[in-house]
Design goal:
The complex is a heterotrimer of chains A (about 475), B (about 250) and C (about 450). Chain B has ten helices and twelve strands. Chain B is an alpha/beta fold and about 250 residues long. With about 450 residues, chain C is α/β, with parallel strands linked by helices. Classes of the chains: A alpha/beta (about 475), B alpha/beta (about 250), C alpha/beta (about 450). Strand 22 of chain A pairs antiparallel with strand 20 of chain C.
């Protein structure tokens, strides 16, 4: 599926470059700016958390203070003033709404404007949504229907209250609090996020989706998502993100942990479209995300698909630890950077079990004055008998002022393991553009067409609704990159 | 339909076309022949509007409009179609998608309603069948991994779908075996009509035994040095280009 | 990452301070300054650690706690009546032999054999004879400021070779540089420096052979600077076959001007710990650079081949095919970086690394990297790692070869592909011979186990 004329029409009709750039005027409740143990206690108290949760947060915070900023990514930005950020912002509401009817209509309107109508009756059947607005989950749809089959889909704050045994067992089990500076900050201050548990043998009857929206000014968003697929279960999970257009940079440091037990499969798709900053590089989100999946059980499978078009800076490496024998990891990625965006993204495939296999398909498109790096690690452990990896990593350059970099690390300690890696860098050729325009297709449409073709292998991995959205994004993101 | 007056064009600063005059009326088929390097392909690129081909003198009017003023896609919208000598590969973009984009872009330009997906596919399949193309080709990426003959047939399919009024056929016969040549010739002949004109650019006379032109021109060193009827092609086949060029 | 022990720079700085007045060329102000700056830089940078991205896979901790005496102070005047050669016995050649980093005239070609316009001389002698000329050469190609081992070499080098070919001079025979390790009874350090300058249109073949006889640890820290003028052509073969007790570090800094061609081949099979690094700057349009090579590792050998090719101008080509076979508990490292500067359009850069792991405990770490700031380029890299193909093995055995022979043949043909990348066909057999030697040893040991 490549961009169709109607897609391009729609894109054109959007009028502005970043269509999610408005903000919602709501009465907010915030914690004071800055970060210290009191703020963490405040967050924990707000959420009425058990003692063990607070302790874990404080332990993370104390460790965070000792950690240096990671300096290895090819991204540049002024030092972050962590004291100049709000760590807790929530729409003011006396009590958690019990049903959608109790949710502030302004919020519902916000999500409708984003194309995510939360009223169940208006929704595309088959997608359950957890909407996270600034720091808190405002609504989760289709809860009842999911409960019938035993699927738990709720905000992580609710899960801490209602399913403490599961949270305690798995939280931090894939991404330990001390993993890296950003993940550590998240562990200390995370405010909400989604929690999913799929019981043994259950195939989740619908796509689950979380929609993240940063709204408040100077607010960091630190959500934490935990998905556990018990033996033989299956779930497909979608994540979408937007933020208003603001002059300041905003911090987003999220953590996603996935656990797949024996024969379970998790498919995790992201369309990330945080505000990328304007043409001069002013504003935009710093998107520092740690995503990792553990294929704990034999024959389990975790598949990451991402379309990254937003954010001023993206720092993100959705990874798989292939521990179970015969487990499978996949990473399909499209990253588009334009103007002054910077992205350093890729994956890690850590093969520990026998007959594990992984596949990495990465398509990077750089335009404008942007810089993009694919950074990937494939590690074949000593016991990963007959493990396999295939990596294809292609970069496309549009214009002569952008950069495209490829930094793969391949480490094999196992003779029977087989690793294959290929990478290319090229540009959209004049021949291709001329061929398209000679057939009557305009130049920008031709670029979108060629780029969609370049990304096809990855777009095909997305669930249908997301694929259409993603194609539009490809077009929008590259506007103004030629001519 | 097409009027070329004293057309001069340069590529990378070198003058390739040095004053071409040519008039093509609706319904006519003109052939341009000439040795390698005579400027044949340059002429087709200039008419289609390729970047880097700079017109330094002269004019081209197409149905009364200044063709040279238009960007490439508008010329396509006006009805100029170039069948490429080396059709370009576009990995990942299925043939069907590409054609739908192109057909609807051109229809829109002409103020015609766009075809919906069902209509379009029906129409496309019918045309492909006429050309004896395997429907599998419609699903594959544009020209990617196609053989030479398959690429040329694909050009004919695009031409049939876009219904141009002026077909520029650049070395459409090159690299074809006799069966493919016949198939491609049939496709061209099927497109001949009183409303449509064709400019067949070729190095060999072979194609012209199947696609019989109304007029034949010999291009040498950027100029048309001889013009005549179909018999000129036969003469060139027998005697080569040498004599015509020297005579000029 | 756990805090790593950092190798102390102290003994080396102390050595510099004690010896600087006696080092060759001492008293020439330009050189004194160059060495002082280098020593200060080495002090500031410290030895590389695995925290340095480009040293991620090669730790230096094995050097810890060994006191290396400068080779010049202990090397006995060795009585080498026979210096092994890469070339057949009667093949014509020019020759320069260094023992413990110091040129031995009796083992080198006399000057009168050289064609006019060519000079091959001891670095120490050249510093006395032509200080102004050397001031124009030393540290001009190897001008990186972030390379601690380069700085250490600049501070401490005692000798080396200077090879200069004038305009359009074609060296009629290959030049064989043999670097024999110090024949000492204590651990030694040696920092040889080699300068090769080919002026416009000059052409040469240089064969560099590293070997040794001792059983004491040697810390070899070589630096070569190669400057190729417009249209110059250099074929450069390097065979590293030092004893296992050697820690062999060598960096070749290469600068290529317009239309010059460098055809390099590195065979890395010696030393317990080795790193052969090539840093190339393509500064003239139309330059062509080939960095091919092979690594053969066994026992507990650690072998690292690192290349950095910096395309600074348009229309240059670089090609790398590096393959390796790793046996026992050997560990191979390949790092290749192709950089394309803004405006270096029409760059064509390709890199391929393939490794065969021959044993269960063998390991390969590879990092082929692209850093691209221009759009109209064609760059690609590929890497594979795996075992000998079972089907191919079965096929050969079904044709009657025993397993050891079949394996040897498959490894040989795998590696031979890189040798075929070498432009000068006449040099290929001598590389293949060294690959076969290595395989022969392996084959015999396999047969022993079988028997």
């Amino acid at each position: 599926m490549a961009a169709s004329v109607e897609t391009i029409e729609q894109v054109k009709s959007l009028g502005e470059r970043y269509k999610y750039g408005w903000s919602t005027d709501l009465e907010m409740e915030t914690a004071p700016k800055g970060l210290n143990e009191d703020i963490i206690r405040f967050i924990s108290a707000k959420k009425d958390e058990p003692e063990w949760m607070l302790e874990w947060r404080l332990k993370a915070f104390r460790h965070w203070l000792t950690m240096p900023e990671p300096g290895w990514a090819k991204v540049g930005f002024p030092p972050i003033d962590y004291q100049d950020v709000y760590y807790y912002a929530a729409p003011k509401q006396t009590e958690k709404p019990k049903s959608l009817d109790e949710v502030d209509p302004k919020l519902l309107e916000t999500y409708e404007k984003l194309g995510i109508p939360l009223k169940e009756q208006e929704m595309l059947a088959g997608v359950a949504v957890d909407a996270v607005f600034d720091s808190v989950s405002v609504a989760t749809t289709f809860k009842k229907k999911l409960e019938e089959v035993g699927v738990i889909f709720c905000s992580i704050s609710e899960a801490v209250q209602n399913h403490p045994e599961l949270v305690r067992k798995y939280l931090g089990s894939v991404v330990p609090y001390a993993d890296n500076k950003h993940a550590c900050l998240n562990a200390a201050v995370f405010t909400d996020g989604s929690f999913v548990y799929i019981p043994e043998g259950v195939r989740c009857p619908m796509e689950l989706s979380t929609y993240f929206r940063i709204n408040a000014e100077n607010t960091g968003q630190f959500e934490r998502t935990l998905i556990i697929a018990d033996k033989g279960s299956y779930v497909s999970y979608l994540e979408g993100c937007t933020a208003p257009q603001r002059d300041e940079n905003q911090l987003h440091a999220a953590v996603v942990e996935l656990v797949a037990l024996e024969d379970a499969e998790i498919k995790y798709s992201t369309v990330q479209n945080w505000f990328p900053g304007d043409e001069e590089g002013k504003g935009g989100i710093y998107n520092f995300v740690t995503k990792r999946g553990l294929c704990e059980g034999a024959r389990s499978k975790i598949s990451w698909t991402q379309v990254e078009t937003g954010s001023a800076i993206t720092w993100k490496y959705p990874s798989c630890i292939l521990k179970g024998d015969n487990s499978v990891g996949e990473f399909y990625s499209i990253a588009i950077t334009n103007n002054l965006q910077q992205a350093d993204t890729g994956t890690k495939m850590i093969h520990l079990g026998k007959n594990t296999s992984s596949r990495i398909i990465s398509k990077g498109i750089s335009a404008g004055r942007s810089n993009q790096t694919y950074r990937g690690l494939v590690r074949m452990g000593g016991k990963a008998e007959n493990a396999r990896n295939y990596t294809q990593c292609d970069s496309l350059l549009i214009g002569e002022r952008c950069g495209a970099h490829t930094v793969p690390y391949i480490e094999s300690k196992n003779r029977s393991a087989k690793v294959e890696h290929e990478a290319t860098t090229s540009r959209i050729s004049e021949d291709q553009l001329f061929y398209c325009t000679q057939r009557g297709i305009g130049e920008e449409e031709a670029v979108a067409l060629v780029v969609n073709g370049f990304c096809r292998e990855v777009l095909q991995q997305l669930p249908m609704e997301f694929a259409v959205e993603a194609q539009k994004l490809v077009g929008i993101s590259l506007e103004g990159s030629v001519g | 339909m097409l009027e070329i007056n004293n057309l001069h064009a340069t590529v990378d600063g070198a003058e390739i076309l040095k004053g071409i005059d040519l008039t093509i009326r609706a319904g006519e088929v003109h052939a341009i022949m000439g040795p390698n390097g005579s400027g044949k392909s340059t002429l087709s690129y200039v008419l289609a509007g390729r970047d880097g081909y700079e017109v330094t003198e002269g004019s081209v009017t197409f149905n009364g409009k200044d063709l040279l003023e238009m960007p490439t896609e508008e010329r396509a919208g006006e009805g100029v179609f170039l069948a490429f000598q080396y059709p370009v590969e576009i990995p990942g973009v299925p043939n069907t998608t590409f054609l739908k984009e192109a057909v609807n872009a051109v229809r829109k330009y002409r103020g015609e309603p766009e075809l919906d997906a069902m209509e379009f596919v029906k129409h496309l399949r019918a045309k492909a069948k006429e050309l004896g193309m395997n429907p599998e080709f419609l699903k594959r990426a544009v020209n990617a991994g196609f053989s030479g003959g398959e690429k040329k047939r694909n050009e004919m399919l695009q031409m049939a779908m876009l219904e141009p009024s002026l077909c520029l056929l650049d070395e459409t016969d090159s690299g074809l075996d006799i069966d493919a040549l016949k198939a491609v010739s049939e496709a061209i002949n099927a497109m001949r009509s009183p409303e449509r004109a064709m400019l067949v650019i070729t190095h060999y006379q072979r194609l012209l035994t199947y696609v019989v032109p109304d007029h034949v021109h010999v291009l040498s060193k950027g100029r048309i040095v001889r013009s005549g009827g179909p018999e000129l092609a036969q003469e060139l086949e027998e005697k080569g280009y040498g004599e015509s060029i020297e005579a000029a | 990452m756990a805090q790593q022990e950092i190798l102390s720079t102290e003994p080396y700085l102390a050595r510099f301070n004690a010896a600087k007045a006696r080092l060759p060329g001492a008293g020439q102000s330009w050189l004194d300054e160059l060495r002082e700056t280098a020593a200060a830089r080495f002090r500031d940078l410290g030895f590389p650690t695995q925290r340095h991205e480009i040293w991620k896979y090669t730790p230096l901790k094995a050097l810890q706690g060994i006191g290396f005496t400068p080779a010049g102070e202990v090397a006995r005047p060795a009585s080498l009546d026979h210096v092994p050669s890469l070339l057949p016995a009667k093949a014509p050649r020019y020759r320069a032999t260094l023992v413990g980093g110091v040129v031995r005239p009796e083992l080198s070609s006399p000057d009168e054999e050289l064609p006019a316009g060519a000079t091959i001389e001891r670095l120490a002698a050249a510093l006395e004879r032509d200080p102004a000329g050397l001031a124009e050469l030393l540290g001009r190609v190897a001008d990186d400021r972030d390379q601690p081992l380069l700085a250490l070499n600049t501070a401490l080098f005692e000798d080396g070779v200077v090879i200069r070919l004038g305009r359009n001079l074609v060296l009629d025979r290959p030049l064989e540089l043999t670097l024999v390790g110090p024949l000492a009874e204590v651990p030694t350090q040696v920092h040889p420096r080699i300068l090769i300058v080919l002026e416009e249109g000059a052409q040469a073949t240089v064969l560099e052979h590293h070997l040794g006889f001792g059983t004491e640890p040697v810390f070899h820290n070589g630096v070569s600077e190669i400057a190729l003028g417009p249209n110059a052509r250099l074929t450069h073969i390097k065979v590293q076959a030092a004893p296992l007790e050697t820690f062999h570090f060598a960096t070749t800094h290469l600068r290529q001007e317009r239309d010059s061609a460098y055809d390099g081949f590195t065979l890395n099979r010696g030393a317990g710990l080795s790193r052969l690094e090539t840093r190339v700057k393509l500064v003239g349009e139309g330059a062509d650079c080939r960095l091919n090579g092979a690594y053969l590792l066994r026992g507990r050998q650690h072998g690292d081949i690192t290349t950095v090719v910096d395309h600074q101008v348009p229309h240059c080509t670089s090609r790398e095919v590096v393959k390796g076979a790793i046996d026992d508990r050997g560990r191979g490292v390949f790092q290749g970086l192709i950089k394309v500067a803004p405006h270096a359009q029409k760059t064509d850069g390709r890199m391929l690394n393939k490794t065969l792991l021959l044993s269960e405990k063998a390991e390969i770490d590879t990092k082929p990297e692209l850093e691209i700031f221009a759009d109209d380029v064609q760059c690609a890299h590929g890497a594979t790692a795996g075992a000998i193909d079972d089907m191919a093995l079965f096929y050969l055995r079904s044709r009657g070869l025993d397993e050891a022979a079949a394996r040897a043949l498959l490894v040989e043909s795998f590696l031979a592909e890189t040798v075929e990348e070498l432009g000068d066909e006449s040099l290929r057999p001598l590389l293949l011979e060294r690959i076969r030697d290595w395989l022969q040893v392996r084959r015999e040991s396999l047969e022993e186990v079988a028997a």
